[in-house]
Amino acid sequence: IYSMTKPVTGIAAMMLVEDGKLSLDQNIADLLPAFANPRVLVDPANSLDIRPANRPITVRNLLTHTAGLGYSIITKGPLLAEYVRL
Predict the structure, then answer these.
(1) Taking the mean position of all CA atoms in its chain, how far away is CA 67?
(2) Of the candidates 51, 54, 61, which has an alpha carbon nearest to the alpha carbon of residue 28?
(3) Which of 30, 34, 55, 72 could lock onto 83 through a cystine, CB 3.0 to 4.6 A?
């Protein structure tokens, strides 16, 4: 079941889309207010400097893994050090 979390979550989300309770292009801030003002790293390899994102993160971005959220297992540089610190 460990490796099935992404497909199961994707199917559940698509069922909500089909029922009209969720939209693929919906801003995730509607569901998770902490994502209301997304920011991106300016130079991820060298610093933790940030700037406002050009657009909101959508449900589609989450489902296609294009939201820009990193994973500690593949992250490098200053961001990895910050993950470890926190």
Answers:
(1) 4
(2) 61
(3) 72
Q: What pLDDT, on a 0 to 100 scale, did the predictor assign at position 69?
A: 85
Asked if 72 is an active-site residue, the reply is no
- Write down the catalytic residue from 3, 23, 47, 72: 3
Structure tokens at 65: 């893994």
Rounded to two decimals, what is the model's pTM?
0.82
Cα 83 to Cα 86: distance, rounded to the nearest angstrom = 5
Question: How far does Cα 14 stand from its chain's mean position?
Answer: 17
What whole-number distance in Å separates Cα of residue 35 and Cα of residue 52? 12
Evaluate whether 41 touches 79 at the Cβ level (below 8 Å).
yes
